[in-house]
Amino acid sequence: AGTASEQLAQLHNRSEILTGIDLSGVDDEVTGILLDLTRNETQLQSYSLVSALMVQLKIFGITLNQSPRREESFSVLKSANVPSILFDLGSLSNNMNLINLRDPTWQSSFGEAIAAGILLWRD
Questions:
Q1: What's the domain range around 23?
Q2: What is the pTM of this model?
Q3: Burial of residue 26 (number of CB atoms within 10 Å: 0-12, 13-18, 19+)
Q4: Residues with Cβ < 8 Å from 101, sequence gap 6 or more?
Q5: How far is CA 34 from the centre of its chain?
Q6: What's the number of CA atoms in the CB half-sphere (13 Å) around residue 53?
Q7: If residue 9 lies in a helix (H) or strand (E), which one and from where to where?
Q8: β-strand partners of 18
Q9: Using one digit for the tens of pLDDT, what is the confidence trace for 49-102?
């Protein structure tokens, strides 16, 4: 029933699917349904967080690339119960990105925009 890493992931999912509630004795079908429901809600929260952050980044004058909202399959973005996002601040080979990343004013604006976005999202 899968590779060792898949089995470990399944065990991890069962033991912590709902913020520490141990579902190891629960039927597979029920566990699967709960996991799907939890992941769907978490994904909606992640989308909401991204929207709030994008609003604040725009207000603070932080320029985003043409397609700032994308989905990736990194394992760190796949938590069942923790909203997750990933910022790609640009490439170090892009001169404008490098200038921004080195600029204390830009760094401060970016940090303030992120903080404001999180507060907006939490309200």
A1: 4-122
A2: 0.70
A3: middle
A4: 89, 90, 92, 107
A5: 20
A6: 18
A7: helix 4-16
A8: 21
A9: 999 999 999 999 998 777 667 777 777 777 777 888 888 888 889 899 899 999
